[in-house]
What does this fold into?
Amino acid sequence: MFRLRFGLAHFLVCALLCPVLAQTPQPPQQKPPLQGEVLRIGAEEVLLDIVVRDKKGRGIRDLKAGDIEIYEDGVKQEITSFRLVNREAVVEAGSNSTTPANAPKTNVPSTADPTRQINLVSFVFERLSPDGRRNARMAAMEFLKEEYGPNVMVAIFALDQRLSAIQSFTSDRDRIKTAVDRVIGMAPSSFASESQKIRQELENFTKADATAAQSAASVGQGGASTVNGGAFADAKAAEVTLNILRLADDSARQQQGQASIFSLLSLIEGQKKLLGRKTVVYFSEGLQVPPNLKDAFQTTISSANRANVSFYAMDARGLQTQSDFDSAKESLNSAVAATQRQQRTRGGEAVTVEQVKAFDNAESAITKNTQNNLASLAESTGGAFVANTNDFRTPMKRVLAELNSYYEASYSPTGKEFDGKFRTITVKALRPDIVLQTRSGYFAVPTMEGVAQLLPYELPMLAALSAKPLPRDFDIRQQILHFADRPNGTQEMLVLEVPLANLTFKVDETTKLYSTHCSLLALLKNSEGRVVHKFSEDFPLDGPTTRLEALKKGNLVFTRAFDVPPGRYTLETVAHDRETNKKAVRRSILLVPNRGENLKMSSVSIIKRIDPIDQSSASDDNPFRFQTGKIIPNLGEPIKPVAGSELGIYTVIYPLRGSTDKPQLILEVLLDGQSVARGQLELPAPDAQGRIPYIARVPLENFKTAGNYEIRVITKQGAQAVEEHAFFIIGS
It folds into this structure.
C-alpha cells in the first residue's frame, strides 16, 4: 500500500540564506537583426582619442588629419573627422588646413560645445593595504594641486565586493579631497597576511615531502622501501590544509576578479552616452583575471574603447611587487607537481583536488600576475600604467596633460559584420617626429537596448535563436520557479540543466587530461518582444581522464534569480557545445500574475540533491539556499527508487500577515492522474521574514509502480487557498 510518512523529523523548516547574483550589468553595444524588435542594427562609428607627443614627451598641437593613418585589422580606414581638443578650445583640424592648431577657425564658435568639452575623471580605490592607501592618497592630492579647468569633473569610488560612490562628479575640490580622505580611511581585513604566512610554510613542507617521495619511488624501483607512517600522516594533513587554502585563494580570486571587472564595466556604461574624453584613475594592488573571466576582461577593454574611456592604472603598492611573480611561479610549480604525482602513482592512489585542477592552475598562472593585467587594461585603452615607484607626481601630471590636450578622430569601419572578433586598431604616424598613444581595438559585438553588453561567446547562441529550424542537437532542460513578491514584481528562479554526457570531450593522451567547453544563454522577453533580462555563463571544463566517466553522469546546472512585474513573457535558452559547434534551443512561456495581498505559495520543486554551501558567505535572499545547503531541483530526470532513499519536496509558503488563522498544508500524490495518497499537515510558525520554507520527504519505497507522478500541494489559511503542482518520473 502506498503511504506517506509525515512528522517533524521528515518536514524540515529551514532559514533561507544567500542570494544567487543576477548577471552583473555590462555596457550595451550595437545590434544585429535577429528577431522582431528585440535587436536592431545601429549606426557604427569608432571614436578615438589620440595623445600625440614629440620624442622628448612634449605635447604636439599642430597635427593634421593627413599626418596619420588609421588601420582596423590591417585595413586602412577613411577618417571622417579629426580635431584637437584642449582646455581652451575645440579646434577642427582638416588635412589641408594651414591654420595653427590652437587658433579657432572662423566657422567654429568661440565658445566650445560644453557637452563635448566636459571631461569626467573617476578615481577608483580598490582594496588597498595601508601602504597602498598612503600612496593612492598622495597621488590623488597631487592631481588636485594642479589647475585642470572648470570643465573637469571628478568622482570618487570605492571598489570592494561592489562599486560604491563616495562622491558624485563635482568640480568642488574641497568635496573631492574630503571624499578621498574618507575612502582612504576604509581599511581592509588583516587576516589575509596571516593566512599567506601559513600557506607559505605548508608550501615549503609539501615541496620537501614531494622530493622525499620521489627519492623513495626511485629506491622502490630497485627493491623494497619503508614508509614512515607518522610522516605520511603529517604530509597528508599538510596537503589537506594546503588544498583548502589554494581553493580559498582560487575562490577569492574568482570573486575579486568578478567584482572588479563587472564593476568597471558598470562604470564605463554609466559614462558612455556623454561625448568627450572620460578618464578612470584606477588605484589597485593587482587586477585578478581568472581564466573563465578572460572574455569579460577583454569586453571591459572593448567597452572602454567604444565609450571613449581611458584607464590610468596605478599599482598602489609602489616598489613592493615581487610577491605577484612569486604567486604566479608557485601556481605553475603546483600544476607541474600535481601532474607529476599523478603520473608517478599511475592511478594507484585517490586523485587529489590539485590534480583535478592541475590544468586550470597552469592556465591561471599566466593571468595571475595581476600587475600585467593592470598594464593591459591601461595600455589597451589609451591610458598609461604606473608601477614600481613611490613617486606619483610625474604620472599625475601626465594624466592632467593628456586630459587637457588630445586629438579626436573618428571613422566608419569598412567591416560591418558583428562576428564577436576583436578588431585591432593601429594608428600610424606619417611624421617622423611624433609618438602616438591610442586605443588597441574593440570587440565587434552588437547591443541590446536596456540589457547587459553582449559578450563574444554569446553571439553564436544569439544567431541560433534566428535559425530555422531551431537547432536541437542535444538535450537541455529548463524551468522557471516563482517565489516571493518583491517591490519590482515577483522573484523568479531560472534553472537550466545540460547533461554532461551530451557534450563533446577532448582527451589528451599525453597529459591524460580531458577538456570540454559549453556556453549557456537565457533571454527573457516581454509581450512586446523586448529583452528584459539576459543571463549567460561560459563553462570551460577540464581535468584528469580518470574522472571523466564519473563526470559524464552529472549535469551542468545554471541558476539565476531575477524579479519581473506581472505579465506574459517568453523564455529562450541556448546551450552551445563549443568543441563541435552544436547547439540546443528551447522556448517556453512564463505567466506572472498579480497575486495581490492574498495567501501565496512558491512553485513546488522536486529535490535532486542539496549541495553544501559556505554559510559565512551567504545572505538570506535566495529561496534555494537554506542553512548549510543549496537545493538543486530535478527538472524531469527519471528517479530510480533505492532502498532507504526518500523523495524530497520543497516549497515556501507566504502566509497572510495579521491573520489569526494558522495555515495548513495538504499534500496529494497522483499517478497518471489518479490520486494514490493524500495527507494534511499543520505548518509551523513563519520565520523572521514571514515565510514558511518547507521540505517534505516521502520514502521512495512507496513508489512501487513506475510512471508519471504529480505532487499537488494545497495551502489553506482561513477562507483562502492556493495550489501548486510538480511532476516527476519514477523509472523502472
Observations:
- The longest strand covers residues 531-544.
